Amino acid sequence: MSGLLEWIAGATAGWADLYGSSSAVETAVMFLHLGGMVAAGGLAFTLDRAVIRSGRGWPHRDDLARELHASHGVILLGLALVFVSGIALTASDPEIFLTSWIYWAKMAAVVLLLANGWFLKGWGDRLRAAPQDEGVFRGLRRAALRSAALWAVSLLGGIAITMYA
Ligand code: HEM
């Protein structure tokens, strides 16, 4: 085991013991992880679907752009809960998770999801300024398609970790 991993395991041993011996703590952490994911992922999926379904010249794009902007804070709050609980989950057994290629593949998907979210917000803000700009709308639609796919891959990664790691 690498020196760094040994150090992390030593630093998180107290938390790993508590997590492993208390169903209440385990339940609370997993609730934050899945709850944050349902809140952020559920809202993101709903908005991605609305963007993907609204075709050329759709009249309510300014409403859609306003809704995208208004939902950004809730999605970030949900993701913050997913991250904090995700770190707590990782610290519950770092030797297993940090040496799992599935874990790192999931983390790569999560990083891409966040990067895409930044671009999606950018296209959404541009759509607020120019609702009938087809070029801006095409950019937003591609970002929404990527967002839906990356949420699905992150979810798959999370389930695969529990099954294979
Ligand atoms: C969009 C982002 C994410 C999604 C959709 C997601 C989803 C999931 C799901 C569905 C599970 C399985 C839960 C279960 O067993 O019932 C899970 C487990 C896990 N997640 Fe995430 N997750 C995300 C981000 C993160 C992040 C950022 C981290 C680390 C910082 C993380 C660390 C973990 C770990 C370690 C487990 C395994 C827990 C265990 O087996 O006890 N996740 N995740």
Q: Care to describe what's here?
A:
By secondary structure, this protein is mostly helical. It has one domain (2-164): A middle domain of Talin 1 (Up-down Bundle). Helix content is 87%, strand content 0%. It contains seven helices and no strands. Helix 3 runs antiparallel to helix 4 and helix 3 packs antiparallel against helix 7. It is elongated, with a radius of gyration of 19 Å. The relative contact order is 0.14. Protoporphyrin IX containing FE (HEM) binds next to helix 3, helix 4, helix 6 and helix 7.
Question: Which key phrases capture this entry?
Answer:
A middle domain of Talin 1; binds protoporphyrin IX containing FE; 165 residues; mainly alpha; single chain
Summarize this structure briefly.
The chain has 165 residues and is mainly α. The protein has 7 helices and no strands.
**What overall form do the CA principal axes indicate?**
elongated
The span between the termini is: 16 Å
- In CATH, the topology is named A middle domain of Talin 1
> Mean pLDDT across all residues, rounded?
94
Structural class: mainly alpha
Rg (CA only): 19 Å
> How many β-strands, per DSSP?
0
By CATH, the architecture is named Up-down Bundle
Unreliable stretches (pLDDT < 50, length at least 5) are none
